[in-house]
């Protein structure tokens, strides 16, 4: 039932599995607050975005050297390939590392060394998106961007994440201008816990090409109309929304309504090691909950390809893979 897809909303730091966290801490002699794997595994009951971020930001401290970043990337690529991912656009949180004294060079080179093998190893194309913590001052993001551009580190775009409410996109106008001027792609988390107003700001002030989450857009019919008209991609993460209690239950998730409204929605796993599964688990969860038929699944897959930062020939190739999947299914 699962088609070839693009994954466009995936935080690399959110792919650290508990066993990897414990192993890597031990490799570096790092003392984590967790006494054991079981103690760590008992921490995954989240009440909101912040309660998750608190755990995420402790655990990612095990990432220290280029090898760590390469290894976590390799593991994601293997798991994503098994889930049917044919193209991945991957976030990393630059300040999560630089504030601990890990240079952006170490982070980007480590991740890139794994990404550079992904076509050969998995037939999977990739992009790398540097994300900023919106609850740090915009000057901090500006400093990081200036450094990465000056050093010529290979990134494809920028994003905006971390605690949303109280940190509107309008704070980051200059950062996004600089990124666009440098030819980078621009996306931002908006309308996850924050209001529809933040989605308007992301579009009008940051000129984003894609909105991450965006589910609260549904509270504003005028915004929905614009998102449909302009075919603005929304990267939706159902398991994440349930685990962070952005929606109360999967049954109340707005995905079916978003499809009905004609929004360009794709499915994504966000932080799969924290939210109960990779992209395949997200597909399975919505298919099970809403009884989506093959046409709806195909639509979600095609939407992911149309939402990706791909050249026309790459886009056509991936649509062709979906054609093949479809033909094989009906044989
Ligand atoms: O879904 C998210 N929202 C905000 N910040 C994040 N950092 C990792 N995942 C997320
Ligand atoms: Zn996210």
UniProtKB/TrEMBL annotation:
Its cofactor is Zn(2+). Binds 1 zinc ion per subunit. The active site is at 192 (proton donor). GO terms for cellular component: cytosol. CDD domains: ADA. Residues 4-325 form the Adenosine deaminase domain. Catalyzes the hydrolytic deamination of adenine to hypoxanthine. Plays an important role in the purine salvage pathway and in nitrogen catabolism. GO terms for biological process: adenine catabolic process; hypoxanthine salvage; nucleotide metabolic process; purine ribonucleoside monophosphate biosynthetic process. It holds the Pfam family A_deaminase. The record marks 213 as: Important for catalytic activity. The keyword Zinc applies. Zn(2+) binds at residues 9, 11, 189, 270. Its EC number is 3.5.4.2. Keywords: Cytoplasm, Hydrolase, Metal-binding, Nucleotide metabolism, Zinc. InterPro entries: A/AMP_deam_AS, A_deaminase_dom, ADE, Ado/ade_deaminase, Metal_Hydrolase. GO terms for molecular function: adenine deaminase activity; zinc ion binding. Substrate binds at residue 271. It catalyses: adenine + H2O + H(+) = hypoxanthine + NH4(+). Belongs to the metallo-dependent hydrolases superfamily. Adenosine and AMP deaminases family. Adenine deaminase type 2 subfamily. It is an enzyme of class 3 (hydrolase). This is Adenine deaminase.
